[in-house]
Structures are given as C-alpha cells and as structure tokens.
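Retro notes (design track)

What went well: tokenization of the new backbones is finally stable.
What didn't: we kept losing track of which sequence belonged to which structure.
Fix going forward: every design gets posted as structure first, then sequence, in one message. First example under the new rule, 120 residues:
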C-alpha cells in the first residue's frame, strides 16, 4: 500500500494507520515447509486492515474491466449534463464518447485465487 506525502494522509488522527499495522507476519514450520500466517497484536483494533483485505479479495474475484467501466460512466455523465463533465487527460478516452462505438471487453483470464496461507 502506498500513501504519498502531501495528500492529507499524515493528518489522520483516527488511528487508521495503527489499524493497518495491527497484525504481524509470522512463520511456522509444518511437515518441513515454512508456512506464513498473520497474527493479531494484542489489544489493537484491525478493522481498517480487514476492510482493505476484503476489498482486494473482491476485486480479485470479480476481475472488473476498469477501462470499460470508466468509459460507461463518462457516457452517462455526458448524456445527463455535458457542461459539468470534466474529461480527464487520458489518451485512451475520446473527447466525444459518441464518436467511437463501444468495444467489447476481452474475456477475463482465470487468475489465482486470493489466499491467506502460502507455502514457501
């Protein structure tokens, strides 16, 4: 996870970053194999870490095509109120969404499933 300096993250006083570091990575040897696992540090809350992990697992399972979703959102915004839409500086996004017909997304490739335990 990356939190750049100067974007307001350093002003958080709600313990968010303490929650992200509420677990430690440990290694246990079972049947000759090293097995990594995470253990919660006593007395610390970890809701922010859990939500972050659930989000990453959901994105991995759903495997959304973000470029197509972004184009659809821009089309809907342009159709509802074209004066208030600010088009980002993205070379792949046309200035006028109606000028290029929508393309079909490529079929999703099978990916490895999210796993908490990994053998080394």
């Amino acid at each position: 996870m990356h939190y750049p300096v100067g974007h307001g993250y350093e002003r958080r006083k709600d313990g968010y970053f303490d929650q992200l570091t509420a677990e430690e990575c440990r290694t246990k040897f079972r049947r000759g194999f090293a097995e990594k696992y995470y253990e919660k540090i006593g007395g610390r809350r970890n809701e922010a870490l859990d939500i972050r992990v659930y989000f990453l697992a959901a994105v991995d399972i759903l495997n959304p095509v973000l470029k197509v979703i972004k184009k659809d959102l821009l089309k809907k915004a342009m159709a509802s109120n074209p004066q208030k839409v600010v088009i980002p500086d993205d070379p792949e996004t046309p200035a006028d969404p109606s000028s290029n017909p929508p393309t079909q997304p490529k079929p999703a490739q099978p990916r490895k499933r999210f796993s908490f335990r990994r053998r080394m």
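Added context from the reviewer: Residues 64-103 form one domain.
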